[in-house]
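Open question from group meeting: does this chain pack into something compact, or does most of it stay loose? Before anyone orders reagents, we agreed to write out a predicted structure and look at it together. Recording both the input and the output here so the notebook holds the full record.
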Amino acid sequence: MSMKKGKQRKPSDLFVPTHRLPKSPGHPFYEKLNEVLGKEDFDEFVEGLCEAFYAERQGRPSIPPGVYFRMLMIGYFEGLDSERSIAWRVADSLTLREFLGYDLDEKTPDHSSLSRIRQRLPLEVHEKVFDWVLGVLAKAGLIHGKTVGADATTLEANAAMRSIVRRDTEESYPGYLERLAKESGIENPTREDRAKLDRKRPNKVSNKDWEHPHDPDAGITKMKDGRTHLAHKAEHAVDLKTNAIVAVTLSPGEEGDTDSLCWTLLEAQTNLERLAEDEDVARKIHPKPVSEVVADKGYHSNDVLVNLILSNIRSYISEPDRGRRKWKGKQEEQVAVYANRRRIKGARGQGLRKDRAEQVERSFNHAYDTGGMRRLHLRDRGNILKRLVIHIGACNLGLLMRTFFGVGTPKAMHDLGSALICMFVKTKHLLIHLFTSFTKRSRTNFENVAQQPFKPDENRQ
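Structure tokens returned:
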């Protein structure tokens, strides 16, 4: 075989015939997703939402709202963490051009256009798109709403710890250490002197004293791997019967679980009650939404359990080992804690706790690890939440696609095709092996019978 040499690059032609332009057959997953969105009139819905924020005639036409929200959904389906990577991927992919409705000779939106539209549209518009996705799931019977599981995870902020400043004096961290060193008697402290002084100080940084000048919403948080970063906390409320994420909230990374739970449950109740305003949807969801909540031991406290009873919500919250407790003057808290303890020890409570551990953690993996938002590239909680609710809405659409078509992402469809081909090849080899073994065994039996001498039957007349 001879070696083929690479062609030298030539200047591109000024005019290219249309029959020479490459055509994309499209991706089956995105074709099905566009069918779902088109059947529910997604483009008409978002255009009606966004119409009030654009001028009727002045200025050049903007990017269609349907394209903007589809591009944010692509961030989840393709596992892209930033708007720059989304814009680059769309410009580079014929499949995504087909999904967005752009021809090859049309320029796709860049990341600055996405940023301008995000700044133009308020958070309420993004939340209504998230509610629209919940409505589509509810019509398909994928939202029940009675029992929800709650849990939170940390998202690394777009801010560095080395840039934090004091809230009172606005000193940087190295400048603060240098001042402490001079106050301790060191006239010209070196970097080693500052590091030595810093090692001996207890409680070096706290959110009460320090903040980031460009992202004050981010909180100093200890991550699950032991590192300390500026982070935000995303909390999910997941329908344990259908795996749908019915609410997502964003809070500072240092905020405790017991403080954020009430807001997440309130958001879930509000979303489900808004769905129940549609009579067709109201028949498919529970008449008393969020009447049960399941959470881990980080959410267990006297105040949380008492507030849940006052809100007519039955709790299944794991209880940490606090030893023997004293209940003098705390009869209301005692009743709430004992009732929760009795429920979590029952068979149903054990099953719900297992479901929460599986389904809520799975939503984190889908949305942030494979979905690509574990590391944030935006600042300001409002901006982050705008993209987050559409990101989680795309995760819910993935659940709908998985229910109807068997796969929830384009990559899963590719893996499914590879698995089917692999299974076909293995089945083929197995059948060949069985046929060969059967043929060999039959030939051996025939040869053994043929070698035996013929004996006539003496009883035969």
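Observations to bring back to the group:
The beta strands are 147-156, 165-166, 210-211, 219-222, 228-239, 245-252, 292-295, 314-317.
The chain has three domains: 22-121, 125-161+219-322+329-405, 165-204.
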